[in-house]
């Protein structure tokens, strides 16, 4: 028996651990105009889940890599370092338990023409 399996059994006996799905974090880079106007983006991400080992006479869990994609509506006016929560789009939960949430860290590219100062857009024009 490995140590991770012991912790998993302890967690299950005390009502924690593999039940609700884990939250997943990913990031996305937006152009300046996408951030200002808002947009819809397909976000592809990967995560790991623990699944029971089947066959071979072994007991325990193994980490399995999963891939998912989700369409996310980005509201107008988002800024860099904003974290958006997309409810129910994280790792799936154990049978009968809800999935986790997806947290999307947003990074906004600089624009060569417009500058942003809080909620204001500015532009410098030669006179």
What this model shows, in words?
- By secondary structure, this protein is mostly beta strands.
- It is 13% helix and 42% strand.
- A 3-stranded mixed sheet has the order 1-5-4. It has a two-stranded antiparallel ribbon with strand order 2-3. A two-stranded antiparallel ribbon has the order 6-7.
- A hairpin with a 2-residue loop joins strand 6 and strand 7.
- The protein is elongated and about 80 Å long.
The percent range for helix content is 10-25%
Largest sheet: 3 strands, mixed
The number of distinct β-strands equals: 7
Run of helices and strands: HEHEEEEEE
What is the alpha-carbon Rg in Å? 21 Å
Strand content: 35-45%
Q: Give the strand order of the largest sheet, numbering strands 1, 2, ... along the chain.
A: 1-5-4
Shape: elongated
Mean pLDDT: 85
Structural class determined from secondary elements: mainly beta
Distance between the termini: 76 Å
Count of helical regions: 2
| Uncertain residue ranges | none
What's the topology here?
Layout: H1 3-13, E1 24-30, H2 32-37, E2 39-52, E3 61-74, E4 82-86, E5 102-108, E6 115-117, E7 120-122
Parallel strand pairs: 1-5
Antiparallel strand pairs: 2-3, 4-5, 6-7
Structure described in brief:
The chain has 127 residues and is mainly beta. The protein is built from 2 helices and 7 strands, in the order H-E-H-E-E-E-E-E-E. Helix content is 13%, strand content 42%.
């Amino acid at each position: 028996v490995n140590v991770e399996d012991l912790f998993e059994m302890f967690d299950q006996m005390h009502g924690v651990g593999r039940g609700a799905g884990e939250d997943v974090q990913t990031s996305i880079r937006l152009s300046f105009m996408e951030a200002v106007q808002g947009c819809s983006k397909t976000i592809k991400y990967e995560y790991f889940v623990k699944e029971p080992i089947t066959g071979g006479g072994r007991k325990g869990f193994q980490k399995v890599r999963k891939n998912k994609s989700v369409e996310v509506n980005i509201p107008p006016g988002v800024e860099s370092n904003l974290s958006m929560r997309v409810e129910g789009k994280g790792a799936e939960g154990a049978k009968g338990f809800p999935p986790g949430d997806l947290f999307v860290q947003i990074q906004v590219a600089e624009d060569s023409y417009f500058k942003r100062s809080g909620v204001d857009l500015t532009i410098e024009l030669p006179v």
